[in-house]
Design a protein that fits this description.
Chain lengths: 186, 186
DNA sequence: GCGAAACTGTCGCTTATCCGACGAAACGGA
DNA sequence: TCCGTTTCGTCGGATAAGCGACAGTTTCGC
């Protein structure tokens, strides 16, 4: 029996898979050397051994590429430790928070950059919100995402060498118990 | 001004370069896991993320691929240390011999194999002979190649963990001084 | 300011790769 | 031996990638 129409449509040309991987790896490689701002599409195409026109066949510009890159990487990282299977909310958020901080830490080498950092944070936050939607309402998921990503980005700038555990534990505590329990004594 | 006919002919399509590298890397990778004999063209194509038909567009069969692979690798290795610039024959052959033994050592992980070993030795010897042709007559170059490759392959099987230096020095001594000086006392 | 150089998107045409299929050959177990 | 399976080498048609060129924009040294 031959392949069905659905199967034929679902399967992607291996050339496409390979080219996209080459382009993504190229950007990752370049981000280890230069700031995102200073990287041109030509740079990426050269590093990927791919024609510049081919780049545009896959991504509208370098920002779209960065977006896809971060989105996939953070999604993969979020799945680690099976946080959605955690017994209670506190341990689930602890795992998620640890993953976010670990993800941020793994991009420490990326130059601070006018374009990079905002997109990095925004995309990470959006992905985290999506990830939390099965467990929380939309508003709650956004709040949690903002809190975690915000503190992670702050940690990246302020004290990236300090241990993330106490910060994560603190944030999770506030989120779970409510701000009232964490209010300063009068 | 546009590119000349010669330039146009000389420059190869980047896809060709990339595909050939993928295929070669795939074989190297597979040789670290299986014997050459047990590796099919399909295996190589899969590992290289390349279609099987594409493989045949570049190499007539897996033996031709292995041949090209060894030829290039050994040629690169032979150039190390600039042996052709050495002041005297003895030091030149010492460098060449060391390179050959190092090359053999770097392929220790390759499984012993009915097909692999003979081709490995033959191709290595042919390349070495070519390499020596500017410095020696054809017959002499072949003799040196046979001696070095033969002892290297023997070393590979007998005592691959022992140091190659004394063996190389010994072979070179015999080649340079002549067998007479190395004849056993009556 | 000004001109050179680099970058950006986009286009039509060429070419290498992908795919499915084919018969032939090699191999191995019943 | 015979038959099922795998591999081989090759083919024609479909498609993604390469190429050079183009006008428009930004960048940067003078």
């Amino acid at each position: 029996m031959g392949t069905s129409v659905a199967e034929r449509a679902a399967r992607v040309d291996p050339r496409v898979t390979r080219t996209q991987k080459l382009i993504r790896d190229a950007l990752v490689s370049l981000l280890g050397e230069k700031s995102f701002e200073s990287i041109s599409v030509q740079d990426i195409a050269d590093r990927a051994t791919v024609n510049r026109a081919t780049f545009y066949a896959h991504y509208t510009d370098k920002f779209a590429l960065l977006d896809a890159l971060i989105r996939e990487d953070v999604a993969a990282r979020l799945a680690e430790g099976d946080p959605l299977q955690a017994s209670d909310t506190r341990s689930m958020l602890a795992i998620v928070g640890t993953n976010i901080f670990a993800f941020v830490a793994s991009h420490r080498k990326c130059r601070v950059d006018r374009d990079f950092e905002p997109q990095f944070a925004r995309t990470m936050e959006a992905q985290l919100t999506d990830f939390l939607l099965p467990s929380f309402g939309h508003c709650t998921a956004m709040l949690i995402s903002s809190a975690l990503v915000g503190s992670a980005m702050n940690w990246r700038h302020e004290a990236p060498k300090s241990s993330p555990e106490p910060i994560v534990a603190n944030i999770v505590g506030i989120l779970v118990d409510g701000v009232d329990k964490h209010r300063k004594a009068p």
